[in-house]
Amino acid sequence: MDIKLDKMPKDIPPQHQEKQPGIEKEMTPKPVYDNDQPGYGRLKGKVAILTGGDSGIGRSVAVLFAKEGADVTIVYLNEHEDAEETATMIRKYGKEALLIPTDISVEVNCKNVVDRTIEKFGKLDILVNNAAVQYEQHDIQDISAQQWEYTFKVNIFSYFFMTKYASQHLAEGSVIINTTSVTAYKGNEALMDYSSTKGAIVSFTRSLSQSLIKKGIRVNAVAPGPVWTPLIPASFPDDKVSEFGKDIPMERPAQPVEIATCYVFLASSEAAFLTGQVLHPNGGSIVNA
């Protein structure tokens, strides 16, 4: 699966899934999460934790990390079949995968993820906070307190909890990468709670980077534009899914592999002088970064 603009799917048929965070095997077309590029050993000997790693951007990051030499802990909610497929791809590249199904909106579960990773691999070098939920609501009156709170618990509280426990094991040269969104900069009238959490992630990234650089730990973020992941058919009605991504200059959504390369770069020594920054793979959308 070569990364070429003319090879990426442009048209998405109408489809909808009833439950978040969605199932990748039920999507048409299937997201592109790997490519024909070889690994270069940029993460050789590293250990990474990746939340939301069973599918979408997370799956692609996990596969490319493994290709570059890292063992990976995949944290996910309950999408067991998707997670097993991701683990199979990791093992295809000769690396180990630890699968941990859990709800990371709960603090103690985040601690358990870190503890199990250390028990399995003996160390931790990279934390990727990536898990998220989103619920389309066109009127603020339709956003319940429960929805608002849960969105924040998954999308930003978990980032704080995972970082709190992971940072105790990160040494000089380690890396934290957070997934924010173009909505943090442009907003989205139908995703007010989601966009708000993504804005919080930008500020969290910048503040955390200033705190941890004293220990030699870099903290950066990635702010994707529209990406073809299971969260899309699980969030929007089928007619909106078929138009997803067509309103940006590239006139199509990204495939996960086109976003995941940013994480590989930020995790590697090639980004040694980058901290507190946000990369914007968004298909040409202009943002006030």
Report on this model:
With 289 residues, the chain is α/β, with parallel strands linked by helices. It has a single domain, classed as NAD(P)-binding Rossmann-like Domain (Rossmann fold, 3-Layer(aba) Sandwich), CATH 3.40.50.720. The protein is built from 8 helices and 7 strands, in the order βαβαβαβαβααβααβ. The protein has helices spanning 56-67, 80-92, 107-121, 145-166, 183-186, 192-212, 238-242, 256-267; strands at 47-51, 71-76, 97-101, 126-129, 175-179, 218-222, 278-279. The chain has a 7-stranded parallel sheet with strand order 3-2-1-4-5-6-7, with helices on both faces.
What's the short version?
By secondary structure, this protein is of the alpha/beta class.
Question: Features of this protein?
Answer:
single chain; 289 residues; alpha/beta; Rossmann fold; 7-stranded parallel beta sheet; 36% helix; 11% strand
How is the topology of this model organized?
Layout: E1 47-51, H1 56-67, E2 71-76, H2 80-92, E3 97-101, H3 107-121, E4 126-129, H4 145-166, E5 175-179, H5 183-186, H6 192-212, E6 218-222, H7 238-242, H8 256-267, E7 278-279
Parallel strand pairs: 1-2, 1-4, 2-3, 4-5, 5-6, 6-7
Helix pairs in contact: 1-2, 1-8, 3-4, 4-6
